[in-house]
Design a protein that fits this description.
single chain, about 220 residues, alpha/beta, Diaminopimelate Epimerase, Chain A, domain 1, 2 domains, four-stranded mixed beta sheet, 14 strands, about 15% helix, rod-shaped
């Protein structure tokens, strides 16, 4: 059962069990994370009309139950407040032809879509790619250069934490590979034309498998 995340921690909704009215749902025999250093854990939690009204020991919280209350035995399971990750990725805003691909498109489909576009003209070629394509050792700068030797190509992992580019993208005046974003990050390269550049910013995670070396950036 997923509990609504009304507040940052359960501690903000703690009431004395004796003062709480009868409730409609009780979770007991569990491990409740409260977020309160003074009382970091509890065994039971009482909920009424979608709101947490009490936490504490099993005996105290079960006293709040009526014949109509639902009792859920957690059997030692962990309960935490809802964790909501609301965020966005700010795009580069490059003048480009964006290739629309299904998220599960494979490397062959990505290559065909890139090859189908004119090799001359203004504007970048961009696309969101799946993580399998990002990790594909065949999807490297040499391959992208063969498909599009003049137009910049930027293939971004749909998670927003990795990308592949061709040589034209690295030379493009509106993209500086020696400068990291304001929140810092790093860009990694491998020597020889078979290399594709990858970047990873903000997340602090390890690079995708396409990256074999890292060049740290200053914050």
């Amino acid at each position: 059962m997923r509990l609504p995340a009304r507040v940052p921690a359960l501690a903000c909704l703690m009431f004395a069990a004796a003062d709480a009215a009868a409730v409609d749902t009780i979770l007991h025999n569990g491990r409740i994370w409260t977020g309160d250093p003074a009382q970091p854990a509890a065994a039971a939690i009482a909920i009424d009309d979608g709101r947490i009204v009490a936490i504490g020991a099993d005996v105290a919280i079960l006293r709040l139950a009526t014949d109509d209350s639902q009792r859920i035995d957690l059997k030692g399971r962990r309960v935490v407040p809802g964790i909501n990750d609301a965020h966005t990725h700010i795009t580069l805003g490059l003048p480009s032809v964006d290739i629309e691909l299904p998220r599960d498109a494979g490397s062959a489909q990505v290559r065909e879509a890139i090859a189908a576009l004119p090799t001359t003209g203004d504007g970048w070629i961009t696309a969101d790619i799946g993580m399998d394509v990002l990790r594909d050792p065949a999807m490297r700068r040499g391959l992208l250069d063969a498909l599009q030797p003049q137009r910049p190509v930027l293939l971004t992992g749909w998670t927003g934490h990795g990308m592949l580019v061709n040589s034209a993208a690295q030379r493009a005046p509106d993209w500086r590979w020696t400068t990291c974003p304001p929140a810092a990050g790093w860009a990694g390269t491998r020597p020889a034309p078979s290399m594709a550049a990858c970047t990873n910013t903000r997340s602090g995670r390890r690079a995708p498998a396409c990256l074999r070396a890292r060049r740290p950036c200053a914050a």
